[in-house]
């Protein structure tokens, strides 16, 4: 949600404001003016240039509640990370039992009945043939509204494909990317696009997932310096492969024009190196991405940390764990539901690339 934007939808839902993690902030610097329980009159964000806004959905049922955490740009990651972890804990208590078992408790997907999971996700009949959430999935509808996107979910006539990419990056590149995000976070850096820009850009794509200083944002040149030009060129060719796979199974129409030349995809690309730890950004709910193609490369073995398992869902298969070793990747379009289970020990690292906007959707990838 851009700073200064009218919160016109506040008339329909209850909101909470919390600045308890930031006692140095004066009440006048609160993100929202007026009573913490926002009245029906529209409110505007009042964040100053010293503040960055992060909204985390902390209630998955009606009334829909959002906590806003204002942060001073000079704050180190400890306080925001603690606030993000607390918000995730709040959300965990309200999740339906099947989702809580999968995401928070780390239960194997085979132990959660598919019908119970479908009911928990509130997938309606109109989306039965796709992996996309239906119009009755209110939490994701409101998430898209908060992102400034149409509330309708992307749909496909059949289950969308998930491509697996063994050895997408070698061990040297994975280690270098882990070291880069560690150095950035420990040094308080925010990537290469200016203070606060990475936080707000990622907020548009994964509002539920954001826990402040848990990622490093790069551009293609920066990624090539770390991972090598050949490996990056291979990643940039994946959107075309995903489009071909989707067209082959009837999940999407054939592309009308080539998706890039020798260097691969030529549109906007968001490149994010993420670190998940138990105390900050511990898990990610089921969601779909608004990017035309998402590429996710594991920078650490699944066995190197507790939890942090990538899950995928389709109507035909239900939910399953996507096991990966260091350097293995996945690629998919915007119609695949996916999630990450709670990290219980160690650190989980991943490289995520969002390629361009969803066809027919609003906005870009960041």
TrEMBL record:
Species of origin: Emiliania huxleyi (strain CCMP1516)
Full protein name: Fe2OG dioxygenase domain-containing protein
Gene3D superfamilies: q2cbj1_9rhob like domain
Domain of life where this protein originates: Eukaryota
């Amino acid at each position: 949600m851009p700073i200064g934007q009218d919160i016109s939808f506040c008339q329909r839902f209850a909101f909470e404001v919390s600045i308890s993690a930031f006692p140095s902030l004066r009440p006048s610097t609160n993100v929202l003016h007026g009573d913490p329980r926002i009245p029906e009159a529209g409110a505007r964000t009042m964040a100053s240039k010293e503040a960055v806004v992060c909204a985390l959905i902390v209630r998955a049922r009606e009334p829909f509640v959002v906590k806003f955490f204002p942060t001073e740009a000079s704050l180190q990651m400890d306080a925001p990370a603690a606030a993000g972890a607390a918000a995730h804990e709040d959300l965990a208590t309200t999740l339906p039992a099947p989702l809580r078992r999968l995401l928070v408790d780390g239960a194997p997907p085979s132990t959660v009945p598919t019908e119970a999971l479908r009911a928990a996700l509130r997938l309606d009949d109109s989306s039965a043939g796709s992996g996309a959430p239906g119009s009755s999935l209110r939490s994701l509808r409101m998430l898209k509204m908060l992102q400034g996107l149409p509330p309708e979910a992307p749909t496909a006539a059949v289950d969308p494909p998930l491509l697996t990419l063994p050895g997408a990056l070698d061990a040297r590149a994975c280690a270098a990317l882990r070291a880069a995000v560690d150095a950035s976070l420990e040094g308080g850096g925010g990537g290469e696009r200016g203070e606060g820009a990475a936080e707000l850009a990622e907020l548009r794509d994964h509002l539920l997932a954001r826990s402040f200083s848990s990622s490093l944002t790069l551009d293609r040149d920066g990624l090539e310096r770390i991972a090598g030009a050949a490996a990056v060129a291979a990643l940039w060719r994946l959107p075309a492969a995903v489009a071909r796979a989707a067209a082959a199974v009837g999940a999407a129409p054939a592309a009308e024009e080539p998706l890039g030349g020798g260097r691969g995809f030529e549109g906007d690309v968001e490149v994010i190196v993420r670190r998940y730890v138990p105390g900050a950004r511990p898990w990610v709910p089921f969601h779909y991405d608004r990017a035309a193609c998402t590429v996710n490369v594991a920078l650490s073995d699944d066995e190197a940390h507790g939890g942090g398992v990538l899950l995928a869902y389709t109507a035909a298969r239900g939910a399953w764990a996507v096991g990966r070793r260091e350097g293995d990747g996945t690629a998919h379009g915007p119609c695949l539901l996916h999630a990450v289970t709670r990290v219980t020990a160690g650190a989980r690292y991943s490289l995520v690339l969002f390629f361009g906007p969803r066809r027919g959707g609003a906005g870009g990838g960041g």
